[in-house]
Amino acid sequence: MSSELLTMTEEEILDQIKNEVDGNRVFLYMKGTPEAPMCGFSNQVVQILNHIGAEYGARDILPDPRIRQVLSSWSDWPTIPQLFVDGKLVGGCDIVTEMFQAEELQPLLGSEAS
Amino acid sequence: MADLAEITKLIEDALPGATVEVVDQGGGDHLAATVIAPQFADASRLEQHRMVYSAVQARLDGGEIHALALKTRAPEDV
Fold it and tell me: Which of A17, A113, B7, B42 gives the lowest tally of CB atoms within 10 Å of its CB?
């Protein structure tokens, strides 16, 4: 998938991002994959989502640096990871962690596990 | 490498009246900031963080800051 990605135009990247965010109730843009996170902050969000048993889609932004640029200008959020729920940006590692600690994340993701 | 004093000033300039504390979490480019600002009064966490990020956007884009962990709240919450 990542090789074909490099030939995509920025408009196509943005369309793909919009489809992913709208097509998945919970979607995470991260460095690496849930199975192999490549950054501490991305890993922390993955651990939280796994801990509360959330179902989520994820995309590794590392294969093409334009993904982060297109995503960040669209979401108006400069850093990675970025968590989207119901098509809206929830935030990065800090906010997801704060919401988890305040037990606001579990009801939002609609999972009983806490 | 980020200049902590400069980052602090960038945030203070963008949020007059704010109390700002910036610390280096290691490597000189992984920073953490605690910002208590009156402008946060009825803003969501997301908006509060966005305000801080936009104040230091140039340093993020320039790579002086690789990561900026944020703790933000309005003064009343203190």
Answer: B42
- ipTM for the whole complex: 0.81
B53 and A77 in contact by Cβ < 8 A?
A: yes
3-state SS of A23-56?
HCCEEEEECECCCCECCHHHHHHHHHHHHCCCCC
Q: Which residues of A touch B (CB under 8 A)?
A: 41, 76-79, 89-95, 98-99
Total-model pTM: 0.88
Alpha carbon distance B38, B41 (integer Å)? 6
Closest Cβ–Cβ partner in B46, B60, B68 for A89: B46
**pLDDT tens for each residue of A24-65:** 999 999 999 999 999 999 999 999 999 999 999 999 999 999
Q: Give the CATH number, domain containing residue B67.
A: 3.30.300.90
